[in-house]
Amino acid sequence: MPGNDDGWSLVPFSTPITGTPERIDPPQPAGPRSRWWRRSRALTVTAVAAALVLTGGGIAVAQAHKTVTLDVDGQVTTVSTFAGSVDALLQAQAVPVGERDSVTPSGALLEGADVVVRHAHQVTVARDGRQQVVWTTALTAAEALADLSVRDGAVTLVASRSGNRAAMPLELTQGAPVDVVADGATHPVPDGTVDVDGALAAVGVTLRPLDTVAVHSVDGRVQVVVQRVVVQQVTTTSEVAFASSTVPDPGLYKGKKVVRTAGVPGVRTVVDRVTTVDGVETARVTLSDTVTTAPVDEVVALGTKPRPVAVASAGSSSPAPAVSGDVDALNWAALAACESGGNPTIVSSNGLYYGLYQFSLSTWRGVGGAGLPSQASPDEQTARAKALYVRSGAGQWPVCGKRLFT
Q1: Rounded CA Rg of the chain
Q2: Domain boundaries, position 388
């Protein structure tokens, strides 16, 4: 029969007995015996009711008590409890639970239940060179990578940096070996039940101020990868070309050029901020680009003075002498090639002989030439060489004169 709840036990009591059982007794005489019988009967009923209460309470206590297993972030304990729900158990055990945490199972707490609590952690992940913060309830980096790789197989966990330490709110593995990759070498760590900083310390890898530390999985094995990052200013210099200009010079014969101001290249200085990762340049930002030494422009004087054709004995010009047709038939080109290499402006190393036919100044003037033979036109030099031949013969060129007859 349904009963009344007493407000404490989870099991309802039986309906209390409020009257006497109906039976037919022979009439009894009034007196002391009648009163005793009634009192004895009342005590019997009370004892029965008390026995029913004690029996029902024992059943309720037995049903409320249970033994369960509580796993909080891998720390497993056996708990004896009277809690009726998982929430009540966690509250009684002072286990905080946030909205991102994972609790299984939920609802009513049953005898022998395995209650698993996983608190969520924030981790930084890198995908395609971009970083973002995500939440995970994984116990280890290996577990987090396995969960995240379902969505992106190339995901990497990025450790935070503080000074020369690297931190991540997860151990690397639950005892499996891991590798530390740094400076081109791979260092095995036999027991991965350490955090990132512990793994680095185990193999003696010291972080520099800008180094990055990432954790990823290669063929199922966790690797802690250290990348050496260096940012420095690099200064480079380059040459700045000078310009060249010409100015007329009436003191020089036409076609004559003289460098009045020598050109000097300038210097350009560029300062860049260069970032390298493991020795490979990944970024370059120009901080300054200036001409630190200005170039000196070249100035060339160009002669404008007309050249004289011939000069008389008094210093005036005289025309080149006419020569016979037989002289014209001689091999003057061969003579010029032998004497000067065919260069009409050449001057001998001793400065005494000039032009195609290596005239001395006295000989040149003797055949009517003015100025320097090397400044006269090739035609004028040839005409005066022919005049010299007519006057003195091929002996004027003791070595090369024979070339006239080849």
Answers
A1: 58
A2: 308-405
Instruction: Tell me if 145 sits within 8 A of 215, measured CB to CB.
Output: yes
* Mean pLDDT value of segment 275-290: 95
Query: What is the spatial distance between Cα 24 and Cα 20, in angstroms, rounded to a whole number?
Result: 12
- Domain boundary, last residue among 303, 320, 347: 303
Query: Tokens 């029965």 appear where?
Result: 48
Q: Any idea of the CA torsion for 60, 66, 72, 74, to the nearest 10 degrees?
A: -170
pLDDT score, position 256? 86
Count Cβ neighbours within 10 Å for each residue of 8-38 and write b for 16 or more, e otherwise.
eeebebeeeeeeeeeeeeeeeeeeeeeeeee
Q: Are both 219 and 247 inside the same structural domain?
A: no
State which amino acid sits at residue 327: V
Is residue 244 within 8 Å of 296, Cβ to Cβ? Answer: no
Report which residue type is found at 66: K
- The predicted pLDDT at position 315 comes to 37
Q: Which of 232-236, 304-308, 388-392 reaches the highest mean pLDDT? A: 232-236
- Inside any domain, residue 47: no
Which residue type is seen at 384? R
Question: Across all residues in the chain, what is the average pLDDT?
Answer: 81
Provide the pLDDT for residue 278: 94
CA distance 101 to 108: 19
| DSSP annotation string for 250-313 | EEEETT-EEEEE--B-EEEEEEEEEEEETTEEEEEEEEEEEEEEPPBPEEEEEEEEPPPS-B-T
> What's the pTM?
0.53
The domain boundary residue, chosen from 303, 338, 367: 303
Q: How far is CA 241 from CA 238, 288, 294, 295, 372, in A?
A: 10, 20, 10, 7, 36
The Cα–Cα gap between 400 and 406 comes to 11
* Angle, in degrees to the nearest 10, between helices 378-392 and 332-340: 100
- Please check the confidence at residue 47 and state whether its pLDDT lies above 70: no
